[in-house]
Amino acid sequence: MRRINVDTVVPPVQISNCMIMTQVETGDKIQKSSTGQDVVRFLKRHSTDLLRRSDTSVDKAREASKGPSKDNEKGEESYPFNRLSFDVGVTENKNGHYRQSMEDVHTYVANFAERLDWGYFAIFDGHAGKQTARWCGSNLHNILYDNIVSKESLDLRENLNEAFQEADSKIGQLNVAGSSGCTAAVAVLRWEEEIEEGENGDVEAEAEVEQKAEQDVEAEAEVEQKTEQDVEAAAEVEDEAEGEDEAEGEDEAEDETETGETQKDYNTLTPFDFVPTKRHKRMLYTANVGDSRVVLCRNGTAKRLSYDHKSTDIWEQQRIVNSGGIMLKNRVNGVLAVTRSLGDCYMKNLVIGSPYTTATELNSEDEFLILACDGLWDVCTDQEAVDMIKGVEDPKKASSILCKYALNKITTDNITVMVVKLDTRVFQCKDNE
């Protein structure tokens, strides 16, 4: 019989869940006195069936939480991406054949920074322990949120840079990471409204206000002279107004009814809670340290939005040497294969946390975004990843395809893949506005 190593396909937690479901559905029994070896033999005999059942149960759970479709409002109240212009799917695997533990962490936030239809997506690939990756997964988005709120007019690339630097500093101060560190790939999706020149009150507008104020003073003098005439005219107007009030009230009621019906019809037609105007543009901001990547699919072509900070990069090598470090066997001081990271406090003067940042305006040609650790990119090019999941509507299924591909290509690292599906219909709503 061909032996299957279950750990290379299913994380330990999923193995436990599969075993319980198999006992209930198939009637197979494991005696209370069974030893650990008996359980292992049972898993190996039924591994194929367990994997099939795991995939089925996960799909059913996702469908139950997601609801029938994004256009259907029923049953979707608990789904975080209901009526948003993006959807997220994540697949991760410890890759137990080569790795003793899972050191990757991922985070995503819908309606990030309390703004409708904003999104935050992040992957953290830990090394020498999971402490730094876990801390970043729990705290980096909060640091960025505080930075955005306090410096709202700042370019978001600067917000990201400051958030990375602050997180790196806090990791050292709090001493929560030990000797661990992590690479990071972060993307923020948001809407920005273009303000026309002069709308915020420029010099010409102030001059107009002053001129109008002078005219108002002159008008007040004229009003004083005509006060008596105005009083008589007002009395006549009041008599006429009483007869018109009832007719106007009926007209207003009809207008309110028509407005309510129009708004109801509009909400039914659009699948999104946030409908952009022609003055809105959809922006994607990214930041990364290390070799975790962000790749955008634009019209079927892969567009990398990150930079690999590896010890093989000539510019990073020069920076390390200029900072007093040495490169041994393509590693910083003979230890680290990445030249930028969060954590790694024992060589912070060399391995810095300053990220590479980008800003990209999205359009209807942008289909999806891939964030993944080097467990995928070590065995897969950007374009290969895009080609494999092009046309796959479900982001969870898409991320699973890429994860399984990396396993089949014998990657030796933990694998985490996040796919952000962009709903291009939102641009049609924008054009029709």
TrEMBL record:
GO terms for molecular function: metal ion binding; protein serine/threonine phosphatase activity. Residues 53-79, 196-271 are annotated as: Disordered. Residues 196-208, 230-259 have a biased composition (Acidic residues). Pfam families: PP2C. CDD domains: PP2Cc (cd00143). The keyword RNA-binding does not apply. The keyword Cytoplasm does not apply. Gene3D superfamilies: PPM-type phosphatase domain. Residues 53-77 have a biased composition (Basic and acidic residues). Residues 87-422 form the PPM-type phosphatase domain. Keywords: Hydrolase, Metal-binding, Protein phosphatase. Belongs to the PP2C family. This is PPM-type phosphatase domain-containing protein. It comes from Eeniella nana.
